[in-house]
């Protein structure tokens, strides 16, 4: 049996439920909470072991890392945009003549 090549991390996982677990992790849930929200496992120890194994899958871990990077890039862009707006505002105030 041949191993499947990891899929493109910019595309959703082929397994819809695994994708949902990843999205729950990105929302701030713990790995176990994220797994339980999708798979409804009754035992947290079992859920923790299974999600740990799932995150060891190359495609799943690559997808999570890719999404985390995208989220970080968006946050950085927001900060950069705020700095640009704030700088423009400060320049405008500096150019304002109070006698106008």
Task: Count the E strands.
Answer: 0
Q: Report low-confidence residues grouped into runs of 5 or more.
A: none
Q: In percent, how much strand structure appears in the residues?
A: under 5%
Mean pLDDT: 86
Alpha carbon gap, first and last residue: 79 Å
Proportion of residues in helical segments: over 70%
The topology string of helices and strands comes to HHHH
Total domains: 1
Overall shape: it is elongated
Largest sheet: none
Protein described:
By secondary structure, the protein is mainly alpha-helical. Helices cover 70% and strands 0% of the residues. It has one domain (16-95). The chain has helices at 16-26, 31-39, 44-55, 58-95. The radius of gyration is 22 Å and the shape is elongated. It starts with 15 loop residues before the first helix and ends in a 5-residue tail after the last helix.
Name the descriptors.
4 helices; 100 residues
Secondary-structure topology with pairs:
Layout: H1 16-26, H2 31-39, H3 44-55, H4 58-95
Helix pairs in contact: 1-2, 1-4, 2-3
């Amino acid at each position: 049996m041949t191993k499947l090549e990891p899929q493109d991390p910019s595309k959703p996982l082929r397994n819809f439920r695994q994708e949902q677990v990843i999205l729950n992790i990105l929302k701030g849930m713990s790995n176990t909470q994220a797994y339980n929200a999708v798979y409804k496992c009754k035992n947290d120890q079992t859920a923790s072991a299974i999600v740990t194994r799932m995150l060891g899958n190359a495609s799943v871990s690559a997808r999570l890392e890719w999404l985390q990077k995208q989220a970080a890039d968006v946050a950085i862009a927001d900060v950069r945009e705020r700095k640009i707006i704030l700088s423009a505002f400060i320049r405008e105030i500096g150019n304002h003549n109070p006698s106008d």
